[in-house]
Structure formats: C-alpha cells, structure tokens
Design goal:
By secondary structure, the protein is mainly alpha-helical. It is 80% helix and 3% strand. The protein starts with a helix and ends with a helix.
Length: 134
C-alpha cells in the first residue's frame, strides 16, 4: 500500500503519531521521548520510599541514642555531684571530729597542769608546815 493511501486510512493522522517501540501503547512522538515505562517509575518510587523509610529509621535510632547518652551523662553528673557533696560532708564531719578531739586534749592538758600546780602547792604547804614545826 502506498504511503499516501496509508495516511489516508489512518484517519488523517500524520507521522507525528507512531508506535515507536512501546508495544501496543500508542503515543505521539513528542511524548514518546519523555515517556518513562511503568516499571522504571515503580522502581524509582519504591527505592525513594525505602530510602526515606531507612533515613527516618536511622534518624530515630540516632535520636534515641543521643537521648540515652544525654541521660547517662546526667546520671554521671548527678552521681559526681552526690559524690562531691558526700565527700564535703565527710570532710566537714572529720574536721569537726578532729577539732573536738583537739579541744578535749587541750582540756585534759589543762587539767593535768592544774593538778600539777595543786600538787606543787600542796608540797609547798607541807614543806612550810614542816619548816614551821622545826
């Protein structure tokens, strides 16, 4: 069949419309250059969806991990603070105890000194008394 006849039988369509390798899908030539098969679109959509889901999951995991680290850091800080306060209290308690012991020793020394003086006086009196007797 001559080309003029074929054009006439195709309902007046010219060469801008063809079947250009898309099976039964009839596409105009202008669209055929930008046409993307369904399988390619499906793969792109699927990989995009998977990548978004994965990145969301990774973000969630990272956020959870950061939160856990922050919580641990706070616990360590609180533990460190508690330890410092406890140490301060113990130091204060030890200081008071040492001071108390020191004061007690001083008092004991004073008592000893007072006793020694009293003995000395007693001895002097006895000596005086003996001297007077003689």
């Amino acid at each position: 069949m001559p080309p003029e006849k074929a054009k006439h039988l195709s309902g007046g369509r010219d060469k801008r419309h063809s079947l250009r390798g898309y099976g039964n899908q009839f596409r105009p030539v202008a669209q055929a250059e930008t046409y993307v098969p369904r399988q390619v679109l499906a793969i792109v959509i699927l990989t995009t969806t998977i990548s978004v889901m994965y990145s969301t999951e990774v973000a969630t995991v990272v956020t959870t991990w950061k939160r856990q680290r922050e919580t641990e850091r706070q616990r360590e800080t609180e533990t460190e603070r508690d330890r410092r306060e406890r140490q301060k209290r113990e130091t204060e308690r030890d200081r008071r105890e040492r001071q108390r012991e020191s004061e007690e020793r001083d008092r004991e020394r004073h008592r000893e000194t007072d006793r020694d003086r009293e003995r000395q006086r007693e001895t002097e009196r006895e000596t005086e008394t003996e001297t007077l007797r003689l």
